[in-house]
Write a structure and sequence with these properties.
Blueprint: H1 2-20, E1 26-27, E2 39-42, E3 49-54, E4 57-62, E5 68-70, H2 73-81, E6 88-91, E7 121-125, E8 128-129, H3 131-137, E9 141-143, H4 149-156, E10 161-162, H5 173-184, H6 188-209, E11 216-224, E12 227-231, H7 236-243, E13 247-248, H8 252-256, E14 260-263, E15 275-280, H9 286-295, H10 297-300, H11 303-306, E16 310-314, H12 315-320, H13 324-343
Parallel strand pairs: 5-6, 5-9, 6-7, 9-10, 11-13, 11-15, 15-16
Antiparallel strand pairs: 1-4, 2-3, 3-4, 7-8, 11-12, 12-14
Length: 344
Protein backbone atom coordinates (compact mmCIF):
# COMPACT_ATOMS: atom_id res chain seq x y z
CA UNK A 1 0.00 0.00 0.00
CA UNK A 2 2.92 2.37 0.60
CA UNK A 3 4.41 2.15 -2.91
CA UNK A 4 1.56 3.98 -4.73
CA UNK A 5 1.68 6.76 -2.09
CA UNK A 6 5.42 7.19 -2.55
CA UNK A 7 5.04 7.29 -6.31
CA UNK A 8 2.28 9.86 -5.94
CA UNK A 9 4.44 12.19 -3.82
CA UNK A 10 7.41 11.66 -6.11
CA UNK A 11 5.35 12.72 -9.12
CA UNK A 12 3.88 15.65 -7.18
CA UNK A 13 7.35 16.82 -6.14
CA UNK A 14 8.51 16.79 -9.76
CA UNK A 15 5.45 18.74 -10.88
CA UNK A 16 5.85 21.36 -8.15
CA UNK A 17 9.56 21.71 -8.78
CA UNK A 18 9.03 22.24 -12.49
CA UNK A 19 6.36 24.81 -11.83
CA UNK A 20 8.70 26.85 -9.62
CA UNK A 21 11.58 26.94 -12.08
CA UNK A 22 11.77 30.13 -14.08
CA UNK A 23 11.51 30.12 -17.84
CA UNK A 24 12.66 33.68 -18.47
CA UNK A 25 15.35 32.44 -20.83
CA UNK A 26 12.77 31.13 -23.29
CA UNK A 27 10.01 32.86 -25.19
CA UNK A 28 7.53 30.97 -27.38
CA UNK A 29 7.09 32.01 -30.99
CA UNK A 30 4.36 34.46 -31.89
CA UNK A 31 2.87 32.11 -34.48
CA UNK A 32 1.93 28.47 -34.17
CA UNK A 33 4.30 27.43 -36.95
CA UNK A 34 7.89 26.84 -35.80
CA UNK A 35 10.85 28.59 -37.33
CA UNK A 36 12.71 26.54 -39.90
CA UNK A 37 16.33 26.94 -38.81
CA UNK A 38 18.73 27.86 -36.04
CA UNK A 39 20.26 31.35 -35.83
CA UNK A 40 22.01 33.47 -33.21
CA UNK A 41 22.27 37.17 -32.47
CA UNK A 42 23.72 39.37 -29.73
CA UNK A 43 21.47 40.39 -26.86
CA UNK A 44 20.40 44.05 -26.84
CA UNK A 45 20.43 44.21 -23.05
CA UNK A 46 23.43 42.09 -22.01
CA UNK A 47 26.63 41.82 -24.09
CA UNK A 48 27.49 38.54 -22.33
CA UNK A 49 24.32 36.92 -23.64
CA UNK A 50 23.15 35.57 -27.00
CA UNK A 51 19.62 35.24 -28.38
CA UNK A 52 19.10 32.00 -30.30
CA UNK A 53 16.15 31.74 -32.66
CA UNK A 54 15.00 28.20 -33.26
CA UNK A 55 12.03 26.03 -34.13
CA UNK A 56 9.87 26.92 -31.12
CA UNK A 57 10.91 30.45 -30.25
CA UNK A 58 13.80 32.41 -28.77
CA UNK A 59 16.21 31.32 -26.06
CA UNK A 60 18.64 33.58 -24.22
CA UNK A 61 21.96 32.02 -23.29
CA UNK A 62 24.36 33.83 -20.97
CA UNK A 63 27.81 32.34 -20.66
CA UNK A 64 28.96 29.08 -22.22
CA UNK A 65 26.91 25.95 -21.38
CA UNK A 66 28.92 23.15 -19.77
CA UNK A 67 26.30 20.51 -18.92
CA UNK A 68 24.42 19.62 -22.09
CA UNK A 69 21.79 16.97 -22.74
CA UNK A 70 21.46 15.67 -26.32
CA UNK A 71 17.92 14.45 -26.88
CA UNK A 72 18.41 12.77 -30.26
CA UNK A 73 21.14 11.37 -32.54
CA UNK A 74 21.48 14.59 -34.58
CA UNK A 75 22.09 16.63 -31.44
CA UNK A 76 24.68 14.07 -30.32
CA UNK A 77 26.46 14.23 -33.69
CA UNK A 78 26.59 18.04 -33.48
CA UNK A 79 28.12 17.99 -30.00
CA UNK A 80 30.64 15.25 -30.70
CA UNK A 81 31.66 16.99 -33.93
CA UNK A 82 32.62 19.94 -31.71
CA UNK A 83 34.50 17.68 -29.27
CA UNK A 84 31.85 18.28 -26.60
CA UNK A 85 30.71 15.40 -24.41
CA UNK A 86 27.04 15.51 -23.33
CA UNK A 87 26.03 14.58 -19.78
CA UNK A 88 22.77 12.96 -20.92
CA UNK A 89 21.48 11.31 -24.09
CA UNK A 90 18.17 10.09 -25.52
CA UNK A 91 18.48 7.64 -28.40
CA UNK A 92 15.95 6.87 -31.12
CA UNK A 93 13.78 4.03 -29.80
CA UNK A 94 14.50 2.00 -32.97
CA UNK A 95 18.28 2.16 -32.44
CA UNK A 96 18.74 1.61 -28.71
CA UNK A 97 21.58 -0.81 -28.00
CA UNK A 98 20.87 -3.20 -25.14
CA UNK A 99 18.44 -2.23 -22.40
CA UNK A 100 19.83 0.86 -20.67
CA UNK A 101 18.09 1.91 -17.45
CA UNK A 102 17.04 5.47 -16.78
CA UNK A 103 19.70 7.31 -14.81
CA UNK A 104 22.44 4.83 -15.75
CA UNK A 105 25.30 5.41 -18.17
CA UNK A 106 24.84 4.61 -21.83
CA UNK A 107 27.30 1.83 -22.66
CA UNK A 108 26.90 1.84 -26.44
CA UNK A 109 25.53 4.13 -29.15
CA UNK A 110 25.25 3.04 -32.78
CA UNK A 111 27.82 4.75 -35.05
CA UNK A 112 28.69 7.49 -32.56
CA UNK A 113 29.70 5.45 -29.52
CA UNK A 114 33.45 5.48 -30.22
CA UNK A 115 33.40 9.29 -29.95
CA UNK A 116 31.97 9.16 -26.41
CA UNK A 117 34.86 9.46 -23.97
CA UNK A 118 32.58 10.12 -21.00
CA UNK A 119 29.46 7.91 -21.28
CA UNK A 120 26.33 10.05 -20.86
CA UNK A 121 23.36 9.22 -18.66
CA UNK A 122 20.40 7.51 -20.33
CA UNK A 123 17.40 9.86 -20.16
CA UNK A 124 15.05 7.70 -22.23
CA UNK A 125 14.38 7.88 -25.95
CA UNK A 126 13.63 11.04 -27.89
CA UNK A 127 10.15 9.64 -28.41
CA UNK A 128 9.70 9.38 -24.62
CA UNK A 129 12.33 11.32 -22.64
CA UNK A 130 12.25 11.33 -18.83
CA UNK A 131 11.73 14.77 -17.28
CA UNK A 132 12.71 13.48 -13.86
CA UNK A 133 16.01 12.01 -15.05
CA UNK A 134 16.85 15.18 -16.96
CA UNK A 135 16.04 17.32 -13.93
CA UNK A 136 18.43 15.33 -11.73
CA UNK A 137 21.29 15.99 -14.15
CA UNK A 138 20.94 19.76 -13.67
CA UNK A 139 21.79 20.66 -17.27
CA UNK A 140 22.45 24.19 -18.45
CA UNK A 141 21.42 23.39 -22.05
CA UNK A 142 19.07 20.89 -23.68
CA UNK A 143 19.47 20.24 -27.40
CA UNK A 144 16.79 18.42 -29.38
CA UNK A 145 15.07 18.40 -32.73
CA UNK A 146 11.97 16.32 -32.14
CA UNK A 147 9.89 18.14 -29.54
CA UNK A 148 6.38 19.46 -29.84
CA UNK A 149 5.58 22.83 -28.33
CA UNK A 150 4.29 21.45 -25.01
CA UNK A 151 7.43 19.35 -24.53
CA UNK A 152 9.54 22.38 -25.35
CA UNK A 153 7.83 24.42 -22.66
CA UNK A 154 8.36 21.67 -20.07
CA UNK A 155 12.04 21.21 -20.91
CA UNK A 156 12.61 24.97 -20.96
CA UNK A 157 11.69 25.00 -17.27
CA UNK A 158 14.58 22.62 -16.59
CA UNK A 159 17.18 24.44 -18.71
CA UNK A 160 17.45 26.59 -21.84
CA UNK A 161 16.27 24.38 -24.69
CA UNK A 162 17.23 24.70 -28.36
CA UNK A 163 15.40 23.04 -31.22
CA UNK A 164 17.82 23.03 -34.17
CA UNK A 165 15.69 20.89 -36.47
CA UNK A 166 11.94 20.85 -36.60
CA UNK A 167 11.64 20.90 -40.36
CA UNK A 168 14.64 20.42 -42.61
CA UNK A 169 14.75 23.23 -45.16
CA UNK A 170 17.98 21.99 -46.72
CA UNK A 171 19.70 18.59 -46.93
CA UNK A 172 22.82 20.35 -45.63
CA UNK A 173 21.13 22.10 -42.74
CA UNK A 174 23.39 20.06 -40.49
CA UNK A 175 26.17 22.43 -41.59
CA UNK A 176 24.13 25.49 -40.57
CA UNK A 177 23.31 23.90 -37.23
CA UNK A 178 26.94 22.97 -36.63
CA UNK A 179 28.16 26.51 -37.35
CA UNK A 180 25.55 28.11 -35.09
CA UNK A 181 26.17 25.65 -32.27
CA UNK A 182 29.90 26.24 -32.65
CA UNK A 183 29.26 29.94 -32.23
CA UNK A 184 27.15 29.33 -29.13
CA UNK A 185 29.67 26.98 -27.53
CA UNK A 186 32.86 28.80 -28.51
CA UNK A 187 33.84 26.19 -31.11
CA UNK A 188 33.49 28.16 -34.34
CA UNK A 189 36.87 26.98 -35.60
CA UNK A 190 36.09 23.33 -34.97
CA UNK A 191 32.70 23.65 -36.69
CA UNK A 192 34.27 25.11 -39.83
CA UNK A 193 37.02 22.49 -39.68
CA UNK A 194 34.42 19.69 -39.79
CA UNK A 195 32.63 21.27 -42.75
CA UNK A 196 35.91 21.77 -44.61
CA UNK A 197 36.83 18.13 -43.89
CA UNK A 198 33.51 17.04 -45.41
CA UNK A 199 34.22 18.97 -48.61
CA UNK A 200 37.74 17.58 -48.86
CA UNK A 201 36.46 14.05 -48.30
CA UNK A 202 33.77 14.56 -50.95
CA UNK A 203 36.23 15.90 -53.51
CA UNK A 204 38.79 13.12 -52.97
CA UNK A 205 36.18 10.35 -53.09
CA UNK A 206 34.42 11.82 -56.13
CA UNK A 207 37.72 11.86 -58.00
CA UNK A 208 38.26 8.17 -57.23
CA UNK A 209 34.68 7.30 -58.16
CA UNK A 210 35.22 8.64 -61.68
CA UNK A 211 37.09 5.37 -62.29
CA UNK A 212 33.77 3.51 -62.08
CA UNK A 213 31.02 3.50 -64.70
CA UNK A 214 28.19 3.23 -62.18
CA UNK A 215 26.76 6.73 -62.16
CA UNK A 216 22.98 6.35 -61.78
CA UNK A 217 21.72 5.32 -58.37
CA UNK A 218 18.29 4.54 -56.97
CA UNK A 219 18.15 5.39 -53.26
CA UNK A 220 15.42 3.41 -51.50
CA UNK A 221 13.98 3.33 -48.00
CA UNK A 222 12.47 -0.05 -47.22
CA UNK A 223 10.91 -1.79 -44.24
CA UNK A 224 9.54 -4.68 -46.27
CA UNK A 225 7.45 -5.28 -49.35
CA UNK A 226 4.68 -3.13 -47.87
CA UNK A 227 6.83 0.02 -47.78
CA UNK A 228 9.28 1.10 -50.48
CA UNK A 229 10.21 4.78 -50.73
CA UNK A 230 12.43 6.58 -53.24
CA UNK A 231 14.62 9.41 -51.91
CA UNK A 232 15.80 12.39 -53.96
CA UNK A 233 18.75 14.77 -53.64
CA UNK A 234 16.90 16.97 -51.11
CA UNK A 235 17.54 14.33 -48.45
CA UNK A 236 20.66 13.94 -46.32
CA UNK A 237 21.86 10.74 -48.01
CA UNK A 238 20.70 11.85 -51.46
CA UNK A 239 22.66 15.10 -51.18
CA UNK A 240 25.82 13.21 -50.22
CA UNK A 241 25.45 10.90 -53.22
CA UNK A 242 24.91 13.87 -55.51
CA UNK A 243 27.99 15.59 -54.04
CA UNK A 244 29.90 12.42 -54.88
CA UNK A 245 28.88 12.78 -58.53
CA UNK A 246 25.99 10.36 -58.73
CA UNK A 247 22.75 11.08 -60.54
CA UNK A 248 19.75 10.00 -58.50
CA UNK A 249 17.01 8.16 -60.36
CA UNK A 250 13.66 9.57 -59.22
CA UNK A 251 10.08 9.74 -60.55
CA UNK A 252 9.09 13.04 -62.14
CA UNK A 253 6.49 13.75 -59.45
CA UNK A 254 9.19 13.45 -56.78
CA UNK A 255 11.27 16.17 -58.43
CA UNK A 256 8.36 18.59 -58.22
CA UNK A 257 6.95 17.66 -54.83
CA UNK A 258 8.40 15.84 -51.85
CA UNK A 259 11.77 14.46 -50.86
CA UNK A 260 10.46 10.91 -50.73
CA UNK A 261 7.72 9.11 -52.59
CA UNK A 262 6.29 5.69 -51.78
CA UNK A 263 5.99 3.30 -54.72
CA UNK A 264 4.63 -0.19 -55.16
CA UNK A 265 6.81 -3.23 -55.67
CA UNK A 266 5.33 -3.72 -59.13
CA UNK A 267 6.53 -0.31 -60.37
CA UNK A 268 10.12 -0.81 -59.26
CA UNK A 269 11.25 -2.61 -62.46
CA UNK A 270 10.48 0.50 -64.56
CA UNK A 271 13.58 2.16 -63.11
CA UNK A 272 16.91 1.20 -64.68
CA UNK A 273 19.68 2.40 -62.34
CA UNK A 274 23.29 1.29 -62.47
CA UNK A 275 23.11 0.54 -58.77
CA UNK A 276 20.58 0.54 -55.96
CA UNK A 277 21.19 1.52 -52.33
CA UNK A 278 18.54 0.19 -49.94
CA UNK A 279 18.18 1.77 -46.50
CA UNK A 280 16.64 -0.66 -44.00
CA UNK A 281 14.16 1.65 -42.27
CA UNK A 282 11.54 1.53 -39.52
CA UNK A 283 12.22 -1.39 -37.20
CA UNK A 284 13.81 -3.45 -39.98
CA UNK A 285 17.40 -4.62 -39.82
CA UNK A 286 19.77 -4.74 -42.77
CA UNK A 287 19.87 -8.54 -42.80
CA UNK A 288 16.08 -8.72 -42.78
CA UNK A 289 15.78 -6.49 -45.84
CA UNK A 290 18.51 -8.46 -47.59
CA UNK A 291 16.46 -11.61 -47.03
CA UNK A 292 13.35 -9.94 -48.47
CA UNK A 293 15.24 -9.20 -51.68
CA UNK A 294 16.71 -12.70 -51.87
CA UNK A 295 13.29 -14.32 -51.52
CA UNK A 296 11.26 -12.11 -53.90
CA UNK A 297 11.21 -12.90 -57.62
CA UNK A 298 10.51 -9.31 -58.75
CA UNK A 299 13.41 -7.91 -56.73
CA UNK A 300 15.74 -10.70 -57.85
CA UNK A 301 14.87 -9.96 -61.50
CA UNK A 302 16.13 -6.37 -61.36
CA UNK A 303 19.28 -5.89 -63.50
CA UNK A 304 21.13 -4.16 -60.67
CA UNK A 305 20.48 -7.12 -58.39
CA UNK A 306 21.59 -9.64 -61.02
CA UNK A 307 24.77 -7.59 -61.51
CA UNK A 308 25.46 -7.58 -57.75
CA UNK A 309 24.92 -3.83 -57.63
CA UNK A 310 22.33 -3.67 -54.83
CA UNK A 311 23.77 -2.48 -51.51
CA UNK A 312 22.01 -2.59 -48.14
CA UNK A 313 22.65 0.03 -45.47
CA UNK A 314 21.16 1.18 -42.17
CA UNK A 315 18.61 4.01 -42.23
CA UNK A 316 19.82 5.07 -38.77
CA UNK A 317 23.14 6.17 -40.23
CA UNK A 318 21.98 7.25 -43.67
CA UNK A 319 18.97 9.30 -42.65
CA UNK A 320 18.35 9.79 -38.91
CA UNK A 321 21.63 11.15 -37.53
CA UNK A 322 22.30 13.76 -40.23
CA UNK A 323 25.54 15.33 -39.06
CA UNK A 324 29.22 15.69 -39.85
CA UNK A 325 30.19 12.35 -38.30
CA UNK A 326 27.32 10.53 -40.01
CA UNK A 327 28.33 12.09 -43.35
CA UNK A 328 31.89 10.90 -42.87
CA UNK A 329 30.68 7.35 -42.13
CA UNK A 330 28.29 7.34 -45.10
CA UNK A 331 31.10 8.34 -47.44
CA UNK A 332 33.28 5.60 -45.93
CA UNK A 333 30.55 3.05 -46.65
CA UNK A 334 30.25 4.26 -50.25
CA UNK A 335 33.98 3.84 -50.64
CA UNK A 336 33.83 0.36 -49.17
CA UNK A 337 30.95 -0.65 -51.46
CA UNK A 338 32.26 0.76 -54.73
CA UNK A 339 36.01 1.22 -54.41
CA UNK A 340 37.20 -1.64 -52.21
CA UNK A 341 37.83 -3.93 -55.19
CA UNK A 342 39.88 -1.22 -56.87
CA UNK A 343 41.96 -0.70 -53.73
CA UNK A 344 42.96 -4.36 -53.37
Amino acid sequence: MKRPVLLHWRSLFLTLLLSTLTACHSQPPAANSPASSLSVQASDTNPACKIINHAWGETELCGRPQRIIALDPHALDLLLSLDIQPIGYAEDSRAVVGSPALGQTVDSVKYLGDRLHHPPIHVGTWQSPSLETMLRLQPDLILSGYLDQSQYKNFSQIAPTLIPIDDWISPKQWQENLLVLGQILGQEGKAQQMIDAYEQNINATRTELTQTDRRNVLLLSMTGLDYIGIFNNETFAGAILEDLGFELVVPKQLIAKNREIVISLETLPQFKPDLIIVMASGDSQVDQVKQVWASNSILRSLPAYQNNQVYFVDYQLWSRIQGAIAAELVIAQVREMLLSKNEV
